[in-house]
Each structure stands twice: as structure tokens, then as C-alpha cells.
Amino acid sequence: MSTPRQPRETRGQGLEPLAVLPVFVPLQGKRAVLAGSNGGAPWKVKLLAAAGAEVDVYAPEPTEELAAVPGDVVAGRVTLHRRAWTPEDLAGAAFCIGALEDEAECVAFVAAARAAGAIVNAVDRPHLCDVKFGAIVNRSPLVVGISTEGAAPVFGQTVRARIEAMLPRGFATWVAAARDWRETVGARFHGFSERRVFWERFTDRAFAEPDRAPGARDLADLLGETQAAPKGGAVTLVGAGPGDAELLTLKALRALRNADVILYDDLVAPEILDYARREARTMLVGKTGHGPSCRQDDINALMVQLARTGKQVVRLKSGDPLVFGRAGEEIDACRLAGIPVTVVPGVSAAQGAAASLGVSLTHRDAARRLQFVTGHDRRGALPEDLNWGALADPSVTTVVYMPKRTLRVLLARAIAEGLAPGTPALVTFNATRPNQAVVRGTAADLADRIEASGYDGPAILMVGEALSRGAAILPAEADQAAAAS
């Protein structure tokens, strides 16, 4: 029997150290100054004007490109002064840029601008900058800024290009609509949870139809849907997959974004919690094989209690919650208490392991059936009621969950019941994670191979002729084979 433990609240690791603080500066209607005419000057002036600033440019000998900027701006205002700057020119400026070739003059400009209370940037002189410009993805009012802190500008530009491709240009009209509708939504729905429902549905609609401009009918529909949405708390059982965060489904991501509280198991990969809202509470309700575990009754009671207070509760489980995840007990507890409960399936450990190994569990030349079996019962022992005839069937692929404690006796009994000793068998540890490891063998020798390997972590056993069909040897396995030879 495992030692009981109590659910406990956890905290995310928080932000990692930041090289710079990403901030956004409103410049609409404010005065900005640029002095000089080096190569970066024209683009900087255009950026300031695009943000709505009234820009005064001081350049005794402006380049042809800089001189043409006042006629190119799409917003704001640009005035070109064909003379050198003076400290008096900086009075009242909110933002100043030095685009000067001479270092000493640039230092003097920065000092004067700071004395005037302005934010300062010096082109190509990061040591003089209060702020720095990064790559920009413009779907205004949706704006994405990207910085590599000067370490890899080309890399930053490539990231910008990738994000450009991911964000449809139509998002600009949706974000503009959100800005225009915010007051109406706030007046209709006074509670935070209702407003969040509205904006979640708004976001789903924007992603579904990004290239269509939203209109009054969209607003009316979304207001009606929000009004009709169920009120109060609910529970969602979510499959986190076997480890690789990229295997999360879109529906799982949406549930994590919407959760007020997330109850998760030890086997859930930590990076998956990074997809949750920053404001969400996270609670470890550790369910580990043969180790200290929270009692299932305590988990059920906690889910119900939180949902009754109006919380959106996500019960986050490794793999698929409906495959040896005790989901049935949690669903029954919610229904008995009158709490709405839904299930978001996940990629199972069997699917993840098979995909990472490149094997088909139902290869038509080797397997007519696929069966999932648990490796232990409530007491942690080999279940007494396993169908040994089915386990010994040469035309089936068997996947055994939680097999570590009983693997040796399970395989020995299967062989005794008729399973061919040479049947291909393998165990995958930490399936789909960076530290995944695989031990291959046969039903007769796999237990010895595992014991010699020293591998640990969540494990899944697979047995059957299908495992020998088209399975490539992964790099980790090649290293393992070389070490054994």
C-alpha cells in the first residue's frame, strides 16, 4: 500500500531571468525627436510616426531617404529641420533618438534628452540606450515585439517571419473590434468569469475566421452565447499526453487557458503547466505508482468543493484520462454532486511510445487485435483475473501499463500459459520525453535486460510480433546497444 499524502498547492517557477523588459510605449499625439541622419534614421522616424507621434527631425544634411520620410508616413506627423539639434529642441519630447555618427555628439545628445525627461535610444550604440528596438509583427492594435538583446539579429528576424506567417492579417480587425466592444461587454457582464467566457468565445471565432471582419451580428451572437452559457463551476478531465507538450490537443490547451484551478499528478510534464493562465492555481494531487499518493476520495472531494465555489477545475492526468486513469471514479463523484463534468482525451502512453518507436501496434501481417492491460491491482500485485489465453495469443499486441513491479512474473506466467518465449517485447521509459529510453528483448529475456539497464521512470511494456515489423533503431537505442557490446 502506498503512503497517503494530502493535496498541496504548488507555484510555477515564474519567469526566467529577462535580458530586457518588454514594454510598449504609447506615443499617440506626443512629441518625439530624432537627431542625425545615419543609416537607421529613416526607419526609426517611420516607426515613431506610425505610433502616432509628432516627430521633429534635426539633420543638417539629411540623406535622400530621410528627406523623403515626411511624405511616406501613414500616421503621426514628421517635420524635417535642416540644421543641427540644440538642447532647447528637446524640451517637451517624450521620446528621443540619436542617429548621429560622432560618438561624442551622441553622448551629449543622450545626456540632454535625459535631462529633458525623455526616453532615449541611440542608433547602433546599445550602451547609450534606455530602450532598444526589436523586430516587430504588426497586426495593430495587435503588436508583437521580438528581441535577442543584440545577440542574434538575423535569428530575431527569422522568428519575426515565422510569427508573421502564423498570424493572419485579419487579426487586426478582430483586435480592433475587441477594443471597440470592451465597454459594451463590461456593461453587460459585471462578473469576471462571464466576461472571460465572452472573450474566450470571441477568440475562438477570431481563430476560426481570421480573414473576415467582425460586425454587429458577431457582437450580438457572442453576447447571447455568453448569456446562455452555464453558470457556476465545472470540472474538466484533461489528458496531458505521455510527456511531450507538443502532443497536447487544441481542446486541452483551451481547457488549461480557461482553468481557475488545475489539479495535476506527478507524471504530468512540468512544461505542460506553462500553458495555463498565469493566474490559475496549481495543486499537486500526486498519484504515483507504488509511492506516496493522495487518496482518491480526497481528490474527488477537492474537485467537488472547488467547483461548488464557482471555479473552473481542470483535473490534469498523464496520458489519456480514460485509460487506467481512474477517470470513472472522478466522473461519478462529480455527477453525484451535481457538478458538470467533461472529458478531453489525450494521447495515451501506448500511442506516444509506439509513435516514437515508429511501430504499428496493429500491423496487419502480425496483429489482429490490440489489448491494454494493467500490470497491477489495487494491492500493487499482479491481477489474479488476467485473461492468460488472450495474453498468450500470437496474433495480438499487448500493451501493459504500470508494469515495473510485476513485469518478470507477468512474462513468466504468460510463457507458462502458452506465449512463445521468443515473442518480441520491449519497455519504453519516459515515452516521448527527452530522456526516453527503450529496452528491447523477448518475452523470455526482457526482465533481465531491464534489470541490467538501470533505467527508471514511467514505463510501458509492449509484447507482440508487430513490434518486429519496420521498427527503426533510435539513437538512444544505438547508444544502449553499443554500451552493452
Which spans have pLDDT < 50 for at least 5 consecutive residues? 472-476, 478-485
Shape: elongated
CATH class of the largest domain: Alpha Beta
Assembly category: single chain
Distance between the termini: 39 Å
Total number of helical segments?
A: 15
CATH architecture of the largest domain: 2-Layer Sandwich
Radius of gyration based on Cα positions = 31 Å
- Give the averaged pLDDT, no decimals: 89
What is the helix content? Answer: 25-40%
CATH level-4 homologous superfamily of the largest domain: Tetrapyrrole methylase, C-terminal domain
Q: How are the strands of the largest sheet arranged?
A: 2-12-11-14-10-15
CATH topology annotation of the largest domain: Methyltransferase, Cobalt-precorrin-4 Transmethylase, Domain 2
Number of strands: 20
Structural class of the secondary structure composition?
alpha/beta
How large a portion of the residues is in β-strands, by DSSP E? 15-25%
Number of domains: 4
Major pleated sheet: 6 strands, mixed
Pathway: Porphyrin-containing compound metabolism; siroheme biosynthesis; sirohydrochlorin from precorrin-2: step 1/1; Porphyrin-containing compound metabolism; siroheme biosynthesis; precorrin-2 from uroporphyrinogen III: step 1/1
EC number: 2.1.1.107
Organism: Methylobacterium planeticum
Keywords: Cobalamin biosynthesis, Lyase, Methyltransferase, Multifunctional enzyme, NAD, Oxidoreductase, Porphyrin biosynthesis, S-adenosyl-L-methionine, Transferase
List the helices and strands and how they pair.
Layout: E1 4-5, E2 8-10, E3 31-36, H1 41-50, E4 54-58, H2 64-68, E5 77-81, E6 95-99, H3 103-115, E7 119-122, E8 135-139, E9 142-146, H4 153-166, H5 171-188, H6 192-208, H7 216-228, E10 234-239, H8 250-258, E11 261-264, E12 281-284, E13 293-294, H9 296-308, E14 312-317, H10 327-336, E15 341-344, H11 349-357, E16 369-374, H12 388-392, E17 396-401, H13 407-416, E18 424-429, E19 437-442, H14 446-453, E20 459-463, H15 475-484
Parallel strand pairs: 1-13, 3-4, 3-6, 4-5, 6-7, 10-14, 10-15, 11-12, 11-14, 16-17
Antiparallel strand pairs: 2-12, 8-9, 17-20, 18-19, 18-20
Active site: 265 (proton acceptor), 287 (proton donor)
Organism: Methylobacterium planeticum
Enzyme class: transferase
